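F.,

This is the one I mentioned.
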């Protein structure tokens, strides 16, 4: 399918969101991803396509890609995406992925653990939970390498409605972040971020006797 770029938004000093309108109606589950191809993009060692989570919730209708840019290291794909003019189109396939919440599960007390730009699927899921008034409690542990946290204002608005408790941290994830959660072994965990971060968190959870884990890692920037 083709997606039409309708807007660009600077979320933090190095994180941008790209708002696309699908040419045809598309449905997805909060937390899923798509494969995107920029025709005419300069190929790099990973080609001219990428996989990105849909950071928008299904009710928002637009397909939103949110990603971090590093001017010294960002791929040619990202540079071409950043320079894409409004009204331009990209090709997309999907959606895919099982990093989604089972709203019929008996476990309705969830812990989301995000590292950096791994927050994007959680943005989609949290907006979906809030919009549909699902009776689900969420603890969000959000780790970032600086104090610019994408979506912080949106999350704090949900937090004010007592749906969500949040820890924002610029420290390294540690075992204490889990053991400080009341009845931590009884919850369902979702972990998203760079592979090294996800591996660390999952290994820590396993060492604490936690097995209810879903994970989603981002292979590179």
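My design for it:
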């Amino acid at each position: 399918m083709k997606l039409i770029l309708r807007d660009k938004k600077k979320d933090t000093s190095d994180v941008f969101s790209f708002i696309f309108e699908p040419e045809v109606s598309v449905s997805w589950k909060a937390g899923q991803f798509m494969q995107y191809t920029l025709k005419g993009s300069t190929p790099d060692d990973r080609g001219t396509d990428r996989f990105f989570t849909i950071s928008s919730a299904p009710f928002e209708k637009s397909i939103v890609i949110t990603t971090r840019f590093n001017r010294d290291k960002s791929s040619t794909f990202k540079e071409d995406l950043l320079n894409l003019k409004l009204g331009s189109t990209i090709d997309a396939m999907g959606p895919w992925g099982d990093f989604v919440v089972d709203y019929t599960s008996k476990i309705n007390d969830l812990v989301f653990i995000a590292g950096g730009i791994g927050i994007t699927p959680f943005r989609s899921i949290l907006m979906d939970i809030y919009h549909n008034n699902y009776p689900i409690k969420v603890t969000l542990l959000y780790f970032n390498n600086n104090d610019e946290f994408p979506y912080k204002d949106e999350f704090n608005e949900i937090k004010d409605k007592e749906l969500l408790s949040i820890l924002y941290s610029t420290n390294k994830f540690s075992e204490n972040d889990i053991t400080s959660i009341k009845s931590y072994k009884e919850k369902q965990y979702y972990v998203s971020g760079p592979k090294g971060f996800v591996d660390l968190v999952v290994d820590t959870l396993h060492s604490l006797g936690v097995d209810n884990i879903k994970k989603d890692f981002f292979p590179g920037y």
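The mean pLDDT is 91.

Talk soon.
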